[in-house]
Write a structure and sequence with these properties.
Elements: H1 3-27, H2 32-61, E1 66-69, H3 73-94, H4 104-123, E2 128-131, E3 135-139, E4 143-147, E5 151-157, E6 160-165, E7 170-174, H5 181-194, H6 201-215
Antiparallel strand pairs: 1-2, 2-3, 3-4, 5-6, 6-7
Helix pairs in contact: 1-2, 2-4, 3-4
Length: 216
């Protein structure tokens, strides 16, 4: 079983338990206790598949490439907000004293899963930047490859690298969120020079100044 199958399985499982809970709202096939039991069993399977998906990605991420952990504030805040929203919904549903409280375990399951997955990603350093011969790989919620041939200009301001592509898109790397910042800076500047990327005059001066300060 690979990550794609695990992802499909967990999503189908979640849709199934949500659908069953919604139908039970109208037809009352199961008692509250029985429905919660079904939801908990489905929830455990959902957590297992989610963890398997992450750990399988962890195995792939462990391949011998130049990889630097990269957790941005926006990524962390989005996860915290998502968990908070589902916890809030769970409390609201549970205290509603109506039949819609049947849905609260689903919100708890999603919030718990997001918490576990976020912890695993942090522990296994599954949000990262990898430097390959002719492209940079960004991995957070998905995989984004930026090839050197696509980059029109490199800017460096306030410890942030901006890679502006020929189609006017911009990808940025904040050094403050990178582990082994000095090693990453050296590797990235070597990659920029090796691929003969266009760097603005002001940015080149700032890069050279930071490089000298790192040497000292």
């Amino acid at each position: 079983m690979n990550s794609a199958i695990a992802s499909l399985g967990k999503n189908l499982l979640l849709l199934g338990v949500v659908g069953l809970s919604a139908i039970n709202f109208f037809y009352s096939w199961f008692s509250f206790k029985d429905l919660v039991g079904i939801q908990l069993i489905a929830g455990l399977a959902y957590v297992f598949l989610s963890c398997y998906e992450v750990l399988n990605a962890s195995f792939k991420a462990a391949l011998p490439v130049m990889r630097f952990s990269y957790f941005t504030n926006s990524y962390v805040m989005f996860r915290v907000l998502k968990i908070g929203v589902f916890v809030t919904f769970a409390i609201m549903l549970y205290t509603s004293q109506t039949r819609i409280q049947y849905l609260y375990p689903i919100c708890v399951i999603i919030a718990l899963t997001e918490s576990i997955v976020t912890y695993l990603k942090y522990k296994k350093q599954l949000c990262f930047v990898s430097i390959y011969a002719n492209y940079i790989l960004f991995v957070q919620t998905g995989f984004v490859r930026v090839f050197a041939s696509q980059i029109a200009l490199v800017e460096f301001r306030h410890d942030i690298f901006y890679f502006i592509t020929k189609n006017k898109k911009s990808h940025q790397i904040k050094l403050t969120h990178i582990t082994n910042k000095q090693q990453f800076f050296i590797a990235l500047t070597e990659w920029i020079n090796r691929n003969k990327l266009n760097v603005s005059t002001e940015s080149k001066l700032k890069i050279d100044t930071l490089a000298l300060s790192n040497l000292n």
